[in-house]
């Protein structure tokens, strides 16, 4: 067999003009690629081998048993009943479905298929990797990750190069066709399959591609189609998997190798000047001018190891490259959950097969997709679906029982049908295939110089059609090169044509692509887009804003690369041609540019004969190409938006508020209050509200604290009970501070917590609803779900089997020190003063709130309240204690205790200990009734109104002086309408009574809601820049870094009140207010309209900072987002 080290001369080494096919044949003999006897044996052997399952004639039942039982237990019936949840798999019967559920469940309920799925960059609140740091999307920048590689699969739709109906209209005519940069065989197949069934002409098809891997793969596919049996579907099935699947059944691989070996053998035995045609079926033939390189590639591949591990590894190295997570995230963003799962499955295993098909046999690597070093030949994002008509693909799938969700299954059936037709026509028609591995220019020159006479392509050869594909793009003067090379070879008939396309011209030409076009054009196109695709596109557009956290217009463009679909580019294109002297060129080559096309439309998704200025049209919304391969995204996005971000908010991220604000409201120190925190999150608002009461306050304060999330509710009960019952207030404050914020705590604190809580609970808690006295006059009562109580018992029991220190540290590091989060953290660090950078880094490393440099070795026990049952650290990796409090107060408190502002977590330590001591003291002294519940917000209101919570002191008659709905108003929670209608009935009639809350993500539904989306963004950037200049801009900082650094602050200088008003209007606020008997306050008395603006300022007031230092601590150190709007509703 061939020795891989043998140095073969390449075609280029041969003297010019002396290409001699005999030389190749001789070389072949020397290499002794295939022993004829061996080939013969192979052929016989391969005929005996059969795949046990493939091809699939219809969708198979997905009840696939474990590998070792495949033969005895595999269900061979067709799958007719789809899994209702995912529709990715079908079963023959209920019985099979039940049997298989255990296995299928994992996939069906996987995260990929979850409506909560979000791309990692959203989850991590960072810019996606595919956005350059300057946030300007440059279409000329390559997508990256392609890493060269051979394009073995085309990505453009196949072309019927003859299109007989619109041209010659003669079923008996002979055709000479040339695909001079063929890529794969799709256009050849489409052209042959599009001919009428009774076509009787001779076809001569030249298939050339300079990539020798492409050429020999095309050869193998044609040989398989022409030589293997068509009737049982083996020929199309072998061709299909050889073309598109990472692995094949061994029987398939052996069959492909055998027919190929026989072909090479027949070439070896040739003598004389002319190459004998090799038969494909009774009528057709093939000749292949295999260059030495092609043969070398072929032999090397045929000698690759037969065991699949290397192929899977090589594939994974490219497909699963961690650096490309965001790229895939972008693709997945547009997919429905089941399509996401299907794509992910394909990306992992690379098999074009029905989702539920038996894959046990697919263990034989398809070496033709790899280099001889085992590297995947293509880029990481090429997908076999690209280019095919997605509606036809889905139809083909449906005809065999597959649902559209099983998109690769549909593709399997579609390709099978196409290849089957192609194979049958190779048998029936008279087709002469001629394969070449040349540069297009070499091919043209060789024909014209009569060097291919032995291939039957003498100097007089002319073609009826020449497909030059995107060779027009290949050099800066591709048009000139292609036309001068190929015009002489075009037959002088009216129907003859050279067909090709420009892909990259838009980048070179001013206004060629929409993102390069003037703003006015851009805006106009956007308008058109909005009108055309209402409501679906508009909807997605708005939601995308949130996916990107409204980064910039440019960012959104980058996602919507396909925005060009609404851009009429015929004029810039005409200009592009003009600048390449097209007129002169046409005169010289005696060609004309067709005004009305006859082969392929002037643009994708445009009818063939449409004018050049025609715009793509879509049969229905599902065809819109912005959704990957025609899949529509709107509903998925909707689902995603409603899913919470991963990780829960055990620490608030909006500064604490005083919900009563006595001084600006009732101003009566004896008044009793009923206040409700409906979605409390942590205790910070309670701390702030209780501690802000005057020393002299003597009323009875009832505080309802609800949170639907068990771990949060649990922690709140633990912390309140500790504050109320640990005798030493100072110790109580310290224990609570660390339970709240430190990932590791001293062991004795755990004991303190356990004993105090046990004492507080006073025996087994069978009843979920209980009340306990604390201090002199206060009580804590709670009404919790069983899960919450279970969790409470678990975290307060000193269970030695619980989380180990090492496991907790590893888990904490996994989240906090994830390498993938480097860029995210760097962005934050970039904005910080050096000492703060160090302080933050230290906090992220150890997770302990203490003055910098304080001894912390005794903080060596995991804080179980921050970990889930299965040992996960429950917060998001960017969670930061500083975000829940007023940073100025933190620094002031630190200073008072001798800490420098640089030691900001030290300051925080002093600040919070003090606040918690005050709260502990007030719980003991004042009369406070805490009523804790663990219900969904609307359910809680219903429960109270229905009298179900009377036992915890919440009778139906209860009315609240303040109701804090937090950000339940956001549509990602329960939304404005549900929140207000549920809670307005429970608001007291008093003048000062108020419902407060805020909107965090309102701007996604409002144009101009965020600064970075507006036209004024440049002005805004200037404003922010001037603040930063004064604050902390290092010299010599490049613009990109600077922009990157200041972009989060844009909203801080952006007046958004009008847009917010318009947003509220669209939410149906007016009707809602009438319905609930409420009014929206212009003058607030509890919380300012925006973070950082004065309490009584107008709704248009901007956040304000007296000093540059304030600007820094609020924007950089605290990392606020500034787009939030707070609202107050009171009685009319
Ligand atoms: Zn399912
Ligand atoms: Zn079955």
TrEMBL record:
Q: Which Gene3D superfamilies match?
A: 6.10.140.2220
Transmembrane region(s): none
Q: Which molecular function terms from Gene Ontology are attached? A: zinc ion binding
Coiled-coil ranges (or none): none
Provide the alphabetized UniProt keywords.
Metal-binding, Zinc, Zinc-finger
Q: Which InterPro entries does UniProt cross-reference here? A: DUF4470 (IPR027974), Znf_MYND (IPR002893)
Its domain of life?
Eukaryota
Q: Which residues form the MYND-type domain?
A: 72-108
Report what the protein is called.
Answer: MYND-type domain-containing protein
């Amino acid at each position: 067999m061939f020795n891989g080290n043998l140095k073969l001369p390449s075609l280029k080494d041969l003297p010019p003009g002396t290409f001699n096919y005999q030389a190749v044949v001789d070389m072949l003999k020397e290499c002794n690629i295939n022993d004829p006897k061996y080939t013969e044996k192979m052929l016989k052997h391969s005929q005996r081998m059969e795949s046990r399952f493939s091809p699939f004639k219809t969708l198979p039942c997905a009840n696939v048993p474990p590998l070792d039982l495949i033969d005895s237990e595999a269900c061979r019936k067709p799958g007719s009943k789809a899994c209702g949840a995912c529709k990715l798999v079908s079963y023959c019967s209920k019985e099979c479905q039940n049997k298989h559920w255990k296995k299928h469940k994992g996939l069906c309920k996987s995260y990929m298929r979850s409506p909560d799925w979000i791309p990692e960059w959203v989850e991590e609140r960072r810019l996606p990797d595919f956005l350059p740091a300057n946030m300007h999307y440059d279409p000329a920048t390559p997508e990256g990750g392609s890493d060269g590689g051979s394009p073995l699969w085309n990505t453009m739709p196949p072309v019927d190069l003859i299109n007989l109906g619109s041209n010659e209209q003669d079923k008996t005519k002979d055709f000479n066709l040339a695909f001079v940069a063929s890529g794969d065989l799709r256009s050849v197949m489409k052209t042959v399959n599009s001919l009428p069934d009774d076509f009787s002409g001779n076809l001569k098809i030249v298939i050339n591609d300079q990539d020798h891997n492409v050429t020999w793969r095309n050869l193998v596919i044609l040989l398989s189609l022409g030589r293997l049996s068509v009737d049982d579907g083996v020929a199309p099935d072998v061709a299909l998997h050889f073309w598109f699947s990472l692995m094949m059944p061994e029987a398939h691989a052996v069959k492909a190798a055998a027919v190929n070996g026989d072909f090479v053998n027949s070439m070896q035995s040739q003598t004389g000047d002319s190459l004998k045609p090799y038969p494909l079926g009774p009528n057709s033939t093939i000749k292949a001018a295999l260059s030495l390189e092609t043969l070398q590639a072929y032999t090397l591949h045929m000698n690759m190891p037969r065991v699949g591990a290397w192929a899977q590894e090589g594939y994974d190295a490219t497909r699963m490259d961690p650096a490309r997570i965001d790229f895939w995230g972008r693709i997945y963003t547009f997919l429905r959950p089941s399509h996401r799962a299907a794509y992910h499955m394909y990306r992992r295993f690379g098999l074009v097969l029905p989702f539920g098909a038996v894959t046990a046999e697919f263990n034989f690597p398809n070496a033709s997709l790899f280099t001889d070093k085992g590297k995947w030949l293509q880029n990481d994002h090429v997908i076999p679906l690209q280019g095919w008509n997605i509606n036809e693909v889905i139809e083909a799938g449906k005809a065999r029982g597959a649902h559209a969700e099983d998109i690769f299954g549909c593709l399997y059936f579609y390709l099978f049908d196409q290849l089957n037709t192609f194979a049958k026509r190779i048998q029936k028609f008279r087709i002469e295939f001629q394969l070449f591995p040349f540069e297009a220019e070499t091919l043209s020159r060789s024909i014209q110089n009569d060097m291919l006479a032995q291939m039957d392509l003498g100097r007089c050869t002319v073609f009826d059609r020449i497909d030059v594909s995107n060779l027009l793009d290949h050099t800066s003067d591709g048009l000139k090169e292609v036309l001068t090379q190929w015009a002489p070879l075009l037959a002088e008939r009216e129907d003859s044509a050279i067909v090709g396309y420009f892909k990259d011209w838009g980048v070179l030409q001013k206004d060629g692509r929409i993102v390069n076009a003037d703003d006015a054009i851009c805006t106009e196109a956007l308008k058109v887009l909005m009108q055309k695709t209402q409501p679906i596109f508009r909807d997605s557009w708005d939601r995308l804003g949130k996916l990107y956290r409204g980064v910039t217009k440019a960012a959104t463009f980058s996602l919507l690369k396909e925005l060009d679909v609404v851009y009429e580019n015929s004029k810039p294109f005409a200009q592009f041609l003009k600048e390449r002297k097209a007129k002169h060129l046409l005169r010289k080559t005696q060609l004309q540019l067709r005004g009305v096309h006859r082969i392929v439309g002037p643009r994708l998704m445009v009818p063939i004969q449409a004018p050049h200025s025609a715009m793509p049209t879509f049969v229905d919304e599902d065809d819109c190409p912005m959704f990957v391969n025609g899949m529509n995204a709107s509903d998925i996005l909707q689902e995603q938006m409603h899913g919470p971000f991963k990780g829960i908010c055990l620490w608030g991220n909006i500064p604490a508020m005083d919900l009563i604000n006595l001084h600006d409201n009732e101003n009566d120190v004896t008044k009793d209050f009923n206040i409700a925190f409906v979605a409390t999150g942590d205790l910070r608002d309670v701390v702030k509200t209780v501690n802000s009461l005057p020393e002299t306050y003597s009323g009875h304060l009832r505080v309802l604290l609800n949170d639907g999330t068990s771990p949060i509710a649990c922690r709140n009960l633990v912390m309140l009970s500790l504050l109320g019952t640990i005798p030493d207030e100072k110790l109580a404050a310290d224990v609570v501070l660390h339970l709240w914020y430190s990932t590791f705590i001293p062991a004795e604190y755990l004991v303190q917590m356990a004993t105090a809580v046990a004492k507080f609970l006073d025996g087994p808690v069978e009843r979920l609803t209980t009340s306990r006295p604390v201090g002199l006059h206060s009580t804590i009562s709670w009404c919790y779900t069983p899960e919450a109580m279970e969790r409470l018992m678990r975290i307060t029991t000193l269970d030695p089997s619980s989380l180990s220190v090492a496991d907790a540290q590893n888990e904490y590091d996994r989240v906090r020190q994830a390498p993938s989060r480097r860029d995210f953290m760097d962005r934050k660090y970039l904005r910080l003063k050096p000492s703060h950078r160090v302080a933050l880094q230290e906090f992220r490393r150890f997770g302990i709130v203490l003055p910098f440099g304080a001894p912390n070795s005794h903080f060596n026990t995991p804080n179980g309240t921050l970990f889930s049952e299965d040992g996960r650290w429950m917060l998001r990796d960017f969670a930061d204690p500083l975000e829940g409090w007023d940073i100025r107060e933190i620094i002031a408190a630190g200073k008072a205790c001798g800490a420098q502002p640089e030691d900001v977590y030290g300051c925080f330590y002093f600040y919070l200990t003090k606040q918690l001591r005050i709260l502990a003291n007030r719980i003991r002294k004042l009369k406070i009734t805490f009523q804790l519940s663990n219900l969904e917000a609307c359910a809680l209101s219903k429960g109270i109104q229905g009298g179900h919570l009377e036992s915890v002191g919440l009778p139906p008659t209860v009315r609240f002086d303040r109701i804090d709905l937090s950000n339940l108003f956001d549509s990602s929670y329960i939304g404005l309408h549900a929140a207000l209608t549920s809670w307005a009935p429970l608001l007291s009639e008093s003048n000062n009574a108020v419902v407060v809350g805020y909107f965090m993500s309102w701007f996604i539904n409002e144009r101009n809601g965020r600064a970075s989306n507006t036209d004024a963004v440049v002005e805004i950037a200037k404003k922010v820049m001037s603040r930063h200049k004064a604050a902390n801009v290092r010299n010599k900082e490049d613009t990109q870094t600077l922009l990157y650094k200041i972009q989060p602050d844009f909203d801080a200088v952006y007046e958004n009140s009008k847009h917010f008003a318009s947003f509220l209007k669209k939410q149906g606020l007016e009707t809602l207010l009438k319905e609930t008997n409420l009014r929206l306050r212009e003058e607030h008395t509890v919380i300012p309209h925006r973070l950082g603006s004065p309490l009584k300022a107008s709704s248009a007031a901007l956040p304000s900072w007296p000093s540059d230092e304030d600007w820094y601590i609020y924007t950089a150190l605290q990392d606020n987002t500034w787009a939030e709007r707070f609202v107050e509703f009171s009685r009319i």
